[in-house]
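Hi support team,

I submitted a single chain yesterday and got back a structure, but I'm not sure I'm reading the token output correctly. Could someone confirm the output below corresponds to the sequence I sent? I've pasted both exactly as they appear in my results page.

Thanks,
R.
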Amino acid sequence: MGIALVTGASRGLGRAIAHELAERGWTLVVDARDGDALAETERAILPRVAPEAALVALAGDVADADHRRALVAAAQGLGGLDLVVNNASTLGATPLPSLLSYPLDELERALGVNVVAPLALVQESMALLRRSARPAVLNITSDASVEAYEGWGGYGLSKAALDHLSAVLAVEEPSLLVWAVDPGDMRTQMHQDAFPGEDISDRPLPEEVVTDLLRLIDAGVPSGRYRLSDLRSTSELALETSNP
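Hi R., thanks for writing in. Yes, this is the structure output for that exact sequence:
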């Protein structure tokens, strides 16, 4: 396998991705802002790490340049980097406000975490990625980037920017696989935060969908924007890029 850097790995989809990659023999660098939660994730994943692989967990904010440098330095210390998973994200202001009442400092924070930080991490990682036989970047996006949902303007516009960033990066760096993947609604803390007091138990857990998500890594499918339903609906990975 290879070496992957997964952000936002202490819970939800990021934790599920890290766990599944470890099961498949990948060496991992993982991060999250909550150090205690990340340590618990590290304890859970370590028994799954292959004897020839390794796991490094670094707590910190991906929006912080020093932390990003530390993550890439950790990957370099492990031998390089083949995959960057930009999963760390912020919902922004909650309860979800309308755009006309959106606190602009919260919007700047959402753009910083959801757009600027992923690009900055890729910039920091490119020297290592260029040494990989099959370098790839997986950016986790959302249907809120293409659908107009009331209250989701701040989060949605940040994910729309991430979609476009992914598409342009793929054109500018043709040797780099760049995927933007909309995983759909899941039973995560972020989704619950978006719907306080509502029952979201009908949504699938991240662990129930992560295998479908990682099919694109296994197959090395072309750069593009994909919905999880695209990845789930075909066994031969004859995927059609979503062009909203």
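A quick pointer for reading it: The two ends are 33 Å apart (CA to CA). Let us know if anything else looks off.

Best,
Support desk
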